[in-house]
Amino acid sequence: MNRELINILLVEDNCRDAELFQDILEMSQESHESQAWNVTHVMRLAEALVQLDRTPVQVILLDLSLPDSQGLQTLVTLREKAPTLPIVVLTGLNDEHLAITAVREGAQDYLVKGLVSGGTITRSMFYAIERKKNEIAMKSCLEQERELREIKSRFISMLSHELRNPLTTILASAHLMEKLSKELSEQKKGEMNRKIKESAGRMNKILDDLLVLWHQESPEPTPFKPSWFDLPQFCQKLVAEFQIQLDHQCSQGTHSIHLIFVSRVKSYPVYLDLNLLEQILTNLLSNAIKYSPNGGKVEFELIADSHQVIFRIQDSGIGIPPWECDRLFTSFYRASNTEGISGTGLGLSIVKNAVEVQGGTIQVNSEVSIGSTFTVTLPFRVNSVLMDPSNCSRPL
Ligand code: ADP
To answer: Fewest C-beta atoms under 10 Å: which of 81, 145, 206, 234?
Structure first.
Protein backbone atom coordinates (compact mmCIF):
# COMPACT_ATOMS: atom_id res chain seq x y z
CA MET A 1 0.00 0.00 0.00
CA ASN A 2 1.33 3.46 -0.96
CA ARG A 3 1.67 5.72 2.04
CA GLU A 4 1.06 9.47 1.73
CA LEU A 5 4.33 11.20 2.66
CA ILE A 6 4.09 14.23 4.92
CA ASN A 7 7.23 16.37 5.12
CA ILE A 8 7.59 17.99 8.52
CA LEU A 9 9.96 20.84 9.22
CA LEU A 10 10.89 20.71 12.91
CA VAL A 11 12.38 24.01 14.11
CA GLU A 12 13.72 23.33 17.61
CA ASP A 13 17.03 24.46 19.16
CA ASN A 14 16.88 21.98 22.03
CA CYS A 15 18.42 18.75 20.71
CA ARG A 16 16.86 16.56 23.41
CA ASP A 17 13.36 17.90 22.72
CA ALA A 18 13.92 17.47 18.98
CA GLU A 19 15.04 13.87 19.41
CA LEU A 20 12.08 13.12 21.62
CA PHE A 21 9.68 14.50 19.00
CA GLN A 22 11.33 12.46 16.27
CA ASP A 23 11.18 9.29 18.38
CA ILE A 24 7.49 9.82 19.18
CA LEU A 25 6.74 10.45 15.51
CA GLU A 26 8.63 7.35 14.45
CA MET A 27 6.73 5.21 16.91
CA SER A 28 3.36 6.63 15.92
CA GLN A 29 4.19 6.01 12.26
CA GLU A 30 3.91 2.28 12.91
CA SER A 31 0.26 2.65 13.83
CA HIS A 32 -0.54 4.83 10.78
CA GLU A 33 -0.74 2.65 7.72
CA SER A 34 -1.75 5.30 5.24
CA GLN A 35 0.70 8.04 6.31
CA ALA A 36 4.47 8.34 6.46
CA TRP A 37 6.41 11.27 7.93
CA ASN A 38 9.71 12.65 6.85
CA VAL A 39 11.19 14.99 9.47
CA THR A 40 13.79 17.64 8.66
CA HIS A 41 15.23 19.14 11.82
CA VAL A 42 16.82 22.62 12.00
CA MET A 43 17.87 24.63 15.05
CA ARG A 44 17.68 28.22 13.84
CA LEU A 45 15.11 30.40 12.09
CA ALA A 46 17.59 31.31 9.35
CA GLU A 47 18.10 27.59 8.58
CA ALA A 48 14.34 27.05 8.51
CA LEU A 49 13.95 29.84 5.93
CA VAL A 50 16.64 28.24 3.73
CA GLN A 51 15.09 24.80 4.14
CA LEU A 52 11.70 26.05 2.96
CA ASP A 53 13.30 27.02 -0.37
CA ARG A 54 15.01 23.65 -0.69
CA THR A 55 12.40 21.00 0.07
CA PRO A 56 8.63 20.71 -0.06
CA VAL A 57 7.11 20.97 3.42
CA GLN A 58 3.52 20.18 4.46
CA VAL A 59 3.64 21.29 8.10
CA ILE A 60 6.00 23.19 10.43
CA LEU A 61 6.53 22.33 14.10
CA LEU A 62 7.96 25.52 15.59
CA ASP A 63 9.60 26.40 18.88
CA LEU A 64 9.21 30.17 19.26
CA SER A 65 12.42 30.67 21.30
CA LEU A 66 15.36 30.16 18.97
CA PRO A 67 18.94 31.46 19.14
CA ASP A 68 18.30 33.90 16.27
CA SER A 69 14.63 34.84 16.92
CA GLN A 70 12.42 35.09 19.98
CA GLY A 71 8.69 34.95 20.70
CA LEU A 72 5.96 35.91 18.30
CA GLN A 73 8.45 37.46 15.86
CA THR A 74 9.60 33.93 14.99
CA LEU A 75 6.08 33.04 13.91
CA VAL A 76 5.58 36.30 12.00
CA THR A 77 8.79 35.81 10.01
CA LEU A 78 7.93 32.20 9.12
CA ARG A 79 4.38 33.08 8.15
CA GLU A 80 5.61 35.80 5.84
CA LYS A 81 7.96 33.32 4.20
CA ALA A 82 5.39 30.52 3.91
CA PRO A 83 1.89 32.00 4.18
CA THR A 84 0.15 28.83 2.98
CA LEU A 85 1.87 26.37 5.34
CA PRO A 86 0.27 25.20 8.61
CA ILE A 87 2.33 25.91 11.73
CA VAL A 88 2.07 24.07 15.06
CA VAL A 89 3.80 25.97 17.87
CA LEU A 90 5.85 24.01 20.45
CA THR A 91 5.81 25.45 23.91
CA GLY A 92 7.00 24.74 27.45
CA LEU A 93 4.70 24.22 30.40
CA ASN A 94 5.26 27.75 31.63
CA ASP A 95 4.67 29.68 28.39
CA GLU A 96 1.32 28.31 27.26
CA HIS A 97 -0.02 31.86 27.27
CA LEU A 98 2.44 32.80 24.50
CA ALA A 99 1.35 29.74 22.50
CA ILE A 100 -2.30 30.77 22.73
CA THR A 101 -1.35 34.26 21.51
CA ALA A 102 0.53 32.60 18.64
CA VAL A 103 -2.65 30.72 17.63
CA ARG A 104 -4.52 34.01 17.67
CA GLU A 105 -1.80 35.44 15.41
CA GLY A 106 -2.21 32.70 12.81
CA ALA A 107 -0.56 29.48 14.06
CA GLN A 108 -2.92 26.55 13.52
CA ASP A 109 -2.34 24.79 16.87
CA TYR A 110 0.12 24.37 19.76
CA LEU A 111 1.69 21.46 21.64
CA VAL A 112 3.03 21.59 25.18
CA LYS A 113 6.41 19.87 25.37
CA GLY A 114 6.42 17.13 27.96
CA LEU A 115 2.71 16.49 27.54
CA VAL A 116 2.79 15.03 24.05
CA SER A 117 2.26 11.50 22.83
CA GLY A 118 2.30 10.07 19.32
CA GLY A 119 -1.47 10.48 19.13
CA THR A 120 -1.49 14.14 20.16
CA ILE A 121 1.27 15.13 17.72
CA THR A 122 -0.28 13.41 14.70
CA ARG A 123 -3.77 14.64 15.54
CA SER A 124 -2.48 18.16 15.95
CA MET A 125 -0.58 18.02 12.63
CA PHE A 126 -3.57 16.70 10.66
CA TYR A 127 -5.81 19.22 12.34
CA ALA A 128 -3.35 22.02 11.45
CA ILE A 129 -3.09 20.88 7.82
CA GLU A 130 -6.89 20.69 7.37
CA ARG A 131 -7.47 23.95 9.19
CA LYS A 132 -4.96 25.72 6.96
CA LYS A 133 -6.59 24.24 3.83
CA ASN A 134 -9.99 25.55 4.98
CA GLU A 135 -8.49 28.91 5.81
CA ILE A 136 -6.98 29.18 2.29
CA ALA A 137 -10.25 28.08 0.64
CA MET A 138 -12.19 30.60 2.70
CA LYS A 139 -9.73 33.39 1.81
CA SER A 140 -10.02 32.54 -1.87
CA CYS A 141 -13.84 32.59 -1.63
CA LEU A 142 -13.75 35.97 0.07
CA GLU A 143 -11.32 37.27 -2.55
CA GLN A 144 -13.58 36.03 -5.36
CA GLU A 145 -16.58 37.63 -3.69
CA ARG A 146 -14.70 40.92 -3.39
CA GLU A 147 -13.67 40.77 -7.06
CA LEU A 148 -17.27 40.01 -8.09
CA ARG A 149 -18.55 42.95 -6.06
CA GLU A 150 -15.96 45.19 -7.72
CA ILE A 151 -16.86 43.95 -11.23
CA LYS A 152 -20.56 44.44 -10.48
CA SER A 153 -20.09 47.98 -9.27
CA ARG A 154 -17.80 48.87 -12.24
CA PHE A 155 -20.35 47.31 -14.60
CA ILE A 156 -23.26 49.29 -13.17
CA SER A 157 -21.38 52.57 -13.26
CA MET A 158 -20.12 51.90 -16.84
CA LEU A 159 -23.59 50.92 -18.02
CA SER A 160 -25.38 53.87 -16.47
CA HIS A 161 -22.75 56.22 -17.93
CA GLU A 162 -22.86 54.67 -21.41
CA LEU A 163 -26.67 54.65 -21.50
CA ARG A 164 -27.13 58.05 -19.93
CA ASN A 165 -25.10 59.92 -22.57
CA PRO A 166 -27.22 58.94 -25.60
CA LEU A 167 -30.37 59.18 -23.51
CA THR A 168 -29.53 62.78 -22.59
CA THR A 169 -29.05 63.59 -26.29
CA ILE A 170 -32.41 62.00 -27.16
CA LEU A 171 -34.25 63.85 -24.39
CA ALA A 172 -32.60 67.20 -25.16
CA SER A 173 -33.29 66.93 -28.91
CA ALA A 174 -36.91 65.83 -28.38
CA HIS A 175 -37.43 68.65 -25.90
CA LEU A 176 -36.00 71.26 -28.31
CA MET A 177 -38.08 69.97 -31.20
CA GLU A 178 -41.21 70.18 -29.13
CA LYS A 179 -40.49 73.66 -27.72
CA LEU A 180 -39.08 75.28 -30.83
CA SER A 181 -40.82 73.34 -33.56
CA LYS A 182 -41.91 76.56 -35.32
CA GLU A 183 -38.57 78.34 -35.08
CA LEU A 184 -36.38 75.43 -36.21
CA SER A 185 -35.47 75.14 -39.88
CA GLU A 186 -36.18 71.87 -41.69
CA GLN A 187 -32.43 71.26 -41.89
CA LYS A 188 -32.02 71.69 -38.12
CA LYS A 189 -34.97 69.37 -37.50
CA GLY A 190 -33.43 66.77 -39.80
CA GLU A 191 -30.14 67.05 -37.91
CA MET A 192 -31.87 66.55 -34.56
CA ASN A 193 -33.80 63.61 -35.89
CA ARG A 194 -30.55 62.04 -37.01
CA LYS A 195 -29.00 62.64 -33.58
CA ILE A 196 -31.98 60.92 -31.93
CA LYS A 197 -31.66 57.94 -34.27
CA GLU A 198 -27.90 57.72 -33.78
CA SER A 199 -28.23 57.85 -29.99
CA ALA A 200 -31.00 55.25 -29.99
CA GLY A 201 -28.77 53.12 -32.23
CA ARG A 202 -25.91 53.39 -29.71
CA MET A 203 -28.20 52.31 -26.89
CA ASN A 204 -29.46 49.45 -29.01
CA LYS A 205 -25.88 48.31 -29.73
CA ILE A 206 -25.05 48.30 -26.00
CA LEU A 207 -28.13 46.20 -25.25
CA ASP A 208 -27.34 43.87 -28.17
CA ASP A 209 -23.77 43.44 -26.89
CA LEU A 210 -25.04 42.67 -23.39
CA LEU A 211 -27.37 40.05 -24.81
CA VAL A 212 -24.53 38.46 -26.83
CA LEU A 213 -22.37 38.47 -23.69
CA TRP A 214 -25.14 36.88 -21.66
CA HIS A 215 -25.46 34.07 -24.25
CA GLN A 216 -21.68 33.77 -24.37
CA GLU A 217 -21.44 33.30 -20.60
CA SER A 218 -24.26 30.77 -20.47
CA PRO A 219 -23.28 27.07 -20.30
CA GLU A 220 -24.75 26.47 -23.76
CA PRO A 221 -22.03 26.84 -26.43
CA THR A 222 -22.50 29.67 -28.96
CA PRO A 223 -24.18 28.11 -32.00
CA PHE A 224 -22.12 27.86 -35.18
CA LYS A 225 -24.46 28.14 -38.18
CA PRO A 226 -22.45 28.31 -41.37
CA SER A 227 -23.87 29.03 -44.80
CA TRP A 228 -22.46 29.68 -48.25
CA PHE A 229 -21.91 33.28 -49.31
CA ASP A 230 -19.50 35.37 -51.31
CA LEU A 231 -16.94 36.78 -48.88
CA PRO A 232 -15.58 39.83 -50.79
CA GLN A 233 -19.14 40.88 -51.61
CA PHE A 234 -20.14 40.61 -47.93
CA CYS A 235 -17.12 42.67 -46.85
CA GLN A 236 -17.79 45.30 -49.50
CA LYS A 237 -21.40 45.65 -48.35
CA LEU A 238 -20.25 46.11 -44.75
CA VAL A 239 -17.65 48.70 -45.76
CA ALA A 240 -20.31 50.58 -47.78
CA GLU A 241 -22.51 50.77 -44.65
CA PHE A 242 -19.59 52.19 -42.63
CA GLN A 243 -18.82 54.60 -45.48
CA ILE A 244 -22.34 56.13 -45.24
CA GLN A 245 -21.74 56.89 -41.54
CA LEU A 246 -18.26 58.26 -42.26
CA ASP A 247 -19.52 60.50 -45.07
CA HIS A 248 -22.05 61.90 -42.68
CA GLN A 249 -19.46 62.49 -39.95
CA CYS A 250 -17.26 64.20 -42.52
CA SER A 251 -20.05 66.53 -43.63
CA GLN A 252 -20.56 67.45 -39.95
CA GLY A 253 -16.90 68.40 -39.68
CA THR A 254 -16.13 65.64 -37.16
CA HIS A 255 -13.07 63.44 -37.68
CA SER A 256 -12.49 62.32 -41.24
CA ILE A 257 -11.51 58.70 -41.85
CA HIS A 258 -10.30 57.30 -45.12
CA LEU A 259 -11.67 53.73 -45.15
CA ILE A 260 -10.08 51.42 -47.70
CA PHE A 261 -11.06 47.84 -48.48
CA VAL A 262 -8.41 45.73 -50.19
CA SER A 263 -9.11 42.21 -51.43
CA ARG A 264 -6.88 40.02 -53.53
CA VAL A 265 -9.90 38.04 -54.66
CA LYS A 266 -12.95 39.44 -56.42
CA SER A 267 -15.33 36.64 -55.75
CA TYR A 268 -14.78 33.94 -53.16
CA PRO A 269 -17.55 31.63 -51.92
CA VAL A 270 -17.04 30.60 -48.30
CA TYR A 271 -18.90 28.45 -45.82
CA LEU A 272 -18.86 30.48 -42.61
CA ASP A 273 -21.25 31.81 -39.97
CA LEU A 274 -22.51 35.17 -41.30
CA ASN A 275 -23.79 36.36 -37.95
CA LEU A 276 -20.51 35.64 -36.14
CA LEU A 277 -18.49 37.15 -38.98
CA GLU A 278 -20.58 40.30 -38.83
CA GLN A 279 -19.94 40.55 -35.07
CA ILE A 280 -16.20 40.26 -35.68
CA LEU A 281 -15.87 42.72 -38.53
CA THR A 282 -18.31 45.40 -37.31
CA ASN A 283 -16.65 45.52 -33.90
CA LEU A 284 -13.11 45.67 -35.31
CA LEU A 285 -14.00 48.28 -37.95
CA SER A 286 -15.95 50.48 -35.57
CA ASN A 287 -13.08 50.30 -33.05
CA ALA A 288 -10.53 51.24 -35.74
CA ILE A 289 -12.68 54.30 -36.56
CA LYS A 290 -13.56 55.19 -32.96
CA TYR A 291 -9.97 54.98 -31.72
CA SER A 292 -8.72 57.27 -34.53
CA PRO A 293 -10.05 60.53 -33.06
CA ASN A 294 -7.77 62.61 -35.28
CA GLY A 295 -8.90 60.88 -38.45
CA GLY A 296 -6.54 59.05 -40.78
CA LYS A 297 -6.56 55.86 -42.79
CA VAL A 298 -8.32 52.62 -41.82
CA GLU A 299 -7.31 49.74 -44.05
CA PHE A 300 -9.35 46.56 -44.19
CA GLU A 301 -7.55 43.77 -46.01
CA LEU A 302 -8.98 40.40 -46.97
CA ILE A 303 -6.65 37.52 -47.83
CA ALA A 304 -8.08 34.14 -48.74
CA ASP A 305 -6.49 30.84 -49.65
CA SER A 306 -7.73 27.30 -49.87
CA HIS A 307 -7.46 26.64 -46.11
CA GLN A 308 -8.25 29.88 -44.38
CA VAL A 309 -9.32 33.51 -44.63
CA ILE A 310 -7.42 36.35 -43.03
CA PHE A 311 -8.95 39.71 -42.14
CA ARG A 312 -6.52 42.49 -41.28
CA ILE A 313 -7.82 45.80 -39.96
CA GLN A 314 -5.22 48.48 -39.51
CA ASP A 315 -5.63 52.01 -38.19
CA SER A 316 -3.36 54.91 -37.37
CA GLY A 317 -5.15 55.83 -34.15
CA ILE A 318 -4.27 56.12 -30.46
CA GLY A 319 -2.78 52.61 -30.20
CA ILE A 320 -2.73 50.39 -27.10
CA PRO A 321 -0.15 50.37 -24.28
CA PRO A 322 1.82 47.09 -24.79
CA TRP A 323 1.26 45.80 -21.24
CA GLU A 324 -2.53 46.01 -21.76
CA CYS A 325 -2.80 44.15 -25.09
CA ASP A 326 -3.48 40.73 -23.49
CA ARG A 327 -6.29 42.00 -21.30
CA LEU A 328 -8.36 43.72 -24.00
CA PHE A 329 -10.30 40.55 -24.75
CA THR A 330 -11.63 40.34 -21.17
CA SER A 331 -15.21 41.61 -20.83
CA PHE A 332 -15.46 45.23 -19.64
CA TYR A 333 -11.72 45.86 -19.86
CA ARG A 334 -10.74 49.19 -21.43
CA ALA A 335 -7.16 50.36 -21.91
CA SER A 336 -5.90 53.26 -19.82
CA ASN A 337 -5.59 55.63 -22.81
CA THR A 338 -9.31 55.67 -23.72
CA GLU A 339 -10.36 58.64 -21.62
CA GLY A 340 -12.89 60.78 -23.50
CA ILE A 341 -13.77 57.95 -25.92
CA SER A 342 -16.99 56.13 -25.01
CA GLY A 343 -17.16 52.35 -24.86
CA THR A 344 -18.25 49.40 -22.75
CA GLY A 345 -15.27 47.06 -23.12
CA LEU A 346 -17.55 44.36 -24.53
CA GLY A 347 -16.74 44.40 -28.27
CA LEU A 348 -13.43 42.53 -28.23
CA SER A 349 -14.63 39.82 -25.86
CA ILE A 350 -17.53 39.23 -28.27
CA VAL A 351 -15.07 39.20 -31.19
CA LYS A 352 -12.79 36.71 -29.45
CA ASN A 353 -15.67 34.36 -28.71
CA ALA A 354 -16.99 34.61 -32.30
CA VAL A 355 -13.48 33.85 -33.60
CA GLU A 356 -12.92 30.90 -31.28
CA VAL A 357 -16.32 29.34 -31.95
CA GLN A 358 -15.18 29.11 -35.58
CA GLY A 359 -11.82 27.62 -34.62
CA GLY A 360 -9.93 30.80 -35.54
CA THR A 361 -7.37 33.07 -33.91
CA ILE A 362 -7.06 36.79 -33.29
CA GLN A 363 -3.87 38.79 -32.89
CA VAL A 364 -3.21 42.40 -32.08
CA ASN A 365 -0.14 44.49 -32.87
CA SER A 366 -0.14 48.01 -31.62
CA GLU A 367 1.99 50.99 -30.77
CA VAL A 368 0.78 53.93 -28.75
CA SER A 369 0.11 57.01 -30.95
CA ILE A 370 1.10 55.04 -34.07
CA GLY A 371 -1.86 52.70 -34.49
CA SER A 372 -3.19 49.16 -34.18
CA THR A 373 -3.58 46.13 -36.41
CA PHE A 374 -6.03 43.36 -35.58
CA THR A 375 -5.60 40.13 -37.56
CA VAL A 376 -8.28 37.45 -37.55
CA THR A 377 -7.63 34.07 -39.14
CA LEU A 378 -10.56 31.72 -39.73
CA PRO A 379 -10.13 28.19 -41.05
CA PHE A 380 -12.67 26.76 -43.47
CA ARG A 381 -14.89 24.14 -41.95
CA VAL A 382 -16.19 22.66 -45.17
CA ASN A 383 -18.60 19.81 -45.04
CA SER A 384 -18.14 17.84 -48.28
CA VAL A 385 -21.91 17.66 -48.93
CA LEU A 386 -22.07 21.41 -48.75
CA MET A 387 -19.00 22.06 -50.89
CA ASP A 388 -21.31 23.05 -53.71
CA PRO A 389 -21.87 26.84 -53.49
CA SER A 390 -25.31 26.38 -55.03
CA ASN A 391 -26.37 25.00 -51.62
CA CYS A 392 -25.85 28.47 -50.17
CA SER A 393 -28.55 28.66 -47.49
CA ARG A 394 -28.55 32.42 -47.03
CA PRO A 395 -27.46 34.19 -50.21
CA LEU A 396 -26.57 37.84 -49.99
P1 ADP B 1 -14.92 49.42 -26.18
O2 ADP B 1 -14.38 49.94 -27.47
O3 ADP B 1 -16.41 49.50 -26.09
O4 ADP B 1 -14.24 50.03 -25.00
P5 ADP B 1 -13.84 46.80 -26.91
O6 ADP B 1 -14.02 45.52 -26.20
O7 ADP B 1 -14.25 46.85 -28.32
O8 ADP B 1 -14.61 47.87 -26.03
O9 ADP B 1 -12.32 47.17 -26.80
C10 ADP B 1 -11.65 47.00 -25.57
C11 ADP B 1 -10.54 48.01 -25.46
O12 ADP B 1 -9.53 47.72 -26.43
C13 ADP B 1 -10.96 49.44 -25.77
O14 ADP B 1 -11.54 50.06 -24.65
C15 ADP B 1 -9.63 50.05 -26.15
O16 ADP B 1 -8.88 50.35 -25.00
C17 ADP B 1 -8.90 48.91 -26.87
N18 ADP B 1 -9.03 48.98 -28.34
C19 ADP B 1 -9.77 48.17 -29.12
N20 ADP B 1 -9.59 48.45 -30.42
C21 ADP B 1 -8.70 49.45 -30.47
C22 ADP B 1 -8.07 50.19 -31.53
N23 ADP B 1 -8.34 49.93 -32.80
N24 ADP B 1 -7.19 51.15 -31.18
C25 ADP B 1 -6.90 51.39 -29.88
N26 ADP B 1 -7.45 50.74 -28.84
C27 ADP B 1 -8.34 49.79 -29.13
So the answer is: 145
